[in-house]
Write a structure and sequence with these properties.
This protein has about 300 residues and is of the alpha/beta class. The chain has two domains: about 1-100, Alpha-Beta Plaits (2-Layer Sandwich); about 135-295, 3-Layer(aba) Sandwich (Rossmann fold), CATH 3.40.50.150. Helix content is about 30%, strand content about 35%.
């Protein structure tokens, strides 16, 4: 099938906003490609900070695609008139698998590493390998928020803990929690496809006996007594769950929130702290932040 790949070259700070505009009109999905230097087979890459980011949307080569392309052009002209959109034809089979060559082993800076399922890599002594095929779900380990969450889990998970993973995506955080000693993880995602991807990854890592995956939302009135709750979603989504988190985090338990731009930290604190949570730590990587709370 023929698609058109529409590319916008933008400043890193504008990438999320541009991606949101593209996502509204792109049935084929949106990708955000950071500028990187490829380090070699099985060595992954290094991000070039400050360089422009490529945001790409995929639109079908059809009458509908032409309408969507015009809708996108108008939306971009209104919000980002200086951004140029570049289109090129691309066949589905060309991009369905080719991205894998850029996905190397991710060293999170602690004991956990992320190893693509198609790479034969032997972990070093003391390393815990998450074998992953992200498919169409979020969570390859290359995004700052995923790395921040894995580092925070290393600080909080104790053997026998129960964990709630909100917005599990590829299941990477749930699997990481089990490797760190969690007795049980409940993993939730609003996207049924992500839930399927997470289930497959948990199975491939031999962790389905300790991880329950489901598609759905963390609804108001949900109760639990989790030792650690992690939500790598977005600023607004985390704020929207401010009234739900007190019901699922046990007294003395940890609440780890990410998917949050650094400029939004005050908003998140203002929403979460009245629920009986005290901020214990802040972590930052580039423009992204992670907040660690403790419930009283």
């Amino acid at each position: 099938m023929l698609w058109f790949e529409i590319t916008a070259r933008v400043a890193p700070a504008d990438a999320d906003a541009v991606a949101a505009i593209m996502r509204d009109v792109a049935p084929g999905g949106v990708t955000v490609e950071e500028p990187v230097d490829i380090l070699g087979p099985e060595r992954g890459f290094r991000v070039r900070e400050g360089d422009p980011v490529l945001v790409r949307a995929y639109l079908p080569s059809s009458e509908l695609g032409a309408v969507l392309t015009e809708d996108l052009r108008r939306a971009m002209q209104e919000s980002f008139p200086a951004v140029e959109l570049i289109a090129k034809p691309i066949y589905e089979q060309d991009w369905a698998v080719s991205w894998r060559e850029f996905f190397g082993v991710v060293d999170t800076g602690g004991h956990l590493i992320i190893v693509p399922s198609w790479i034969d890599h032997q972990p070093a002594a003391g390393q815990l390998a998450i074998r992953l095929d992200p498919g169409q779900a979020f969570g390859t380990g290359h995004h700052e928020t995923t790395r921040l969450c894995l580092a925070a889990l290393e600080s909080h998970i104790r053997p026998g803990n129960t964990v709630l993973d909100v917005g599990t995506g590829s299941g990477v955080l749930a699997i990481g929690a089990v490797l760190l000693g969690a007795a049980h993880v409940e993993a939730i995602d609003i996207d049924p496809i992500a839930a399927e991807v997470a289930t497959a990854n948990c199975r491939d890592n031999g962790a389905l006996d300790r991880i329950s995956v489901r598609a759905g939302r963390l609804e108001p009135g949900t109760t639990g007594a989790y030792d650690v709750t992690v939500a790598n979603i977005s600023t607004d989504a985390n704020i929207g769950l401010a009234g739900v988190f007190p019901g699922v985090v046990r007294p003395g338990g940890a609440l780890i929130l990410s998917g949050i731009l650094a400029v939004d930290v005050p908003r998140v604190r203002a929403a979460i702290e009245p629920g009986g949570f005290a901020l214990e730590a802040l972590r930052y990587e580039r423009d992204w932040s992670l907040l660690e709370f403790r419930r009283a």
